[in-house]
């Protein structure tokens, strides 16, 4: 089985990539397997900038092809926040629950028709000696009034997908992987790689 390094320490992402890459015959390794002490500062203004920085920094350290994911939640009524700050929206060191509670609080007086949001995922594939490939994927939804569901991670319990009638945290990993921003970005990456051989 081929191996691919994912420049992440997020267990939720790793779990999803394991399933997504299994279909292409890849086993994924992450910084959690290799070196948890490596920290790449995410100081970019865009998801793309952060994804490229994570992928290229880690690819250089290990000299192997490396994929990085920079993602987050974009809420219309919050002018696009938390955006690139999604992982630390409630402050450094705060957990997923604190972050989603902050979003719910900020939307307390916002009616259902104005609670539109989307997840965004930028993927960067850095292969030593080659130009980095960057793709994006999104997933549209509506922010609920309260958390629902136990699956997934991050803001999944407050992201309602109207076409499925469930929050993303009420979907199985397989169901989420059919519609998620991460899966959509990965499909684009696969198309890019297929058209370049
Ligand atoms: O409900 C969610 N479902 C998802 O599918 C999802 N994908 C991303 N996110 C949120 O956005 C932050 C990304 O920040 P991020 O890309 O910097 O990742 P991270 O710092 O957690 O890990 P790393 O990959 O940088 O090591 C994460 O922490 C999450 O809060 C998600 N929330
Ligand atoms: Mg991060």
UniProtKB/TrEMBL annotation:
Active site: 70
Binding site for substrate: 8-13, 71, 153-156, 176, 181-182
Assembly with partners or alone: Homodimer.
Keyword set includes Hydrolase: yes
UniProt entry keywords in alphabetical sequence: Coiled coil, Hydrolase, Magnesium, Metal-binding, Nucleotide metabolism, Nucleotide-binding
Positions that bind Mg(2+): 41, 70
GO annotation, cellular component aspect: cytosol
Top class in the EC scheme: hydrolase
Protein name per its UniProtKB record: dITP/XTP pyrophosphatase
Residues in coiled coil: 90-117
EC number(s) on file: 3.6.1.66
GO annotation (BP), single: purine nucleoside triphosphate catabolic process
Key word Metal-binding present: yes
Cofactor entry: Mg(2+)
Co-factor binding details: Binds 1 Mg(2+) ion per subunit.
General function of this protein: Pyrophosphatase that catalyzes the hydrolysis of nucleoside triphosphates to their monophosphate derivatives, with a high preference for the non-canonical purine nucleotides XTP (xanthosine triphosphate), dITP (deoxyinosine triphosphate) and ITP. Seems to function as a house-cleaning enzyme that removes non-canonical purine nucleotides from the nucleotide pool, thus preventing their incorporation into DNA/RNA and avoiding chromosomal lesions.
Domain of life: Bacteria
Family stated for the protein in its record: Belongs to the HAM1 NTPase family.
Pfam families recorded: Ham1p_like (PF01725)
Record's catalysed reaction(s): ITP + H2O = IMP + diphosphate + H(+); XTP + H2O = XMP + diphosphate + H(+); dITP + H2O = dIMP + diphosphate + H(+)
MF annotations from Gene Ontology: dITP diphosphatase activity; ITP diphosphatase activity; metal ion binding; nucleotide binding; ribonucleoside triphosphate phosphatase activity; XTP diphosphatase activity
């Amino acid at each position: 089985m081929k191996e691919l390094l994912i420049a992440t320490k997020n267990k939720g992402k790793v779990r999803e990539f394991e399933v997504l890459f299994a279909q292409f015959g890849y086993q994924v390794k992450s910084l959690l397997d290799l070196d948890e002490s490596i920290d790449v500062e995410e100081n970019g203004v865009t998801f793309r900038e952060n994804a490229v920085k994570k992928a290229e920094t880690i690819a250089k350290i290990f000299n192997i092809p490396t994929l990085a994911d920079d993602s987050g939640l974009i809420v219309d009524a919050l002018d696009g926040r938390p955006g690139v700050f999604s992982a630390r929206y409630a402050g450094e060191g705060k957990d997923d629950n604190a972050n989603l509670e902050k979003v719910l609080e900020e939307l307390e007086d916002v009616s259902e028709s104005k609670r539109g949001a989307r997840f965004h995922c930028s993927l960067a594939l850095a292969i030593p000696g080659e130009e980095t490939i960057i793709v994006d994927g999104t997933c549209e939804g509506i922010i609920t009034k309260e958390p629902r569901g136990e699956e997934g991670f991050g803001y999944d319990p407050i992201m309602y997908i109207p076409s499925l009638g469930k929050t993303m945290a009420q979907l199985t990993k397989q169901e989420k992987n059919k519609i998620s921003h991460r899966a959509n970005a990965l499909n684009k990456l696969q198309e890019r790689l297929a058209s370049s051989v």
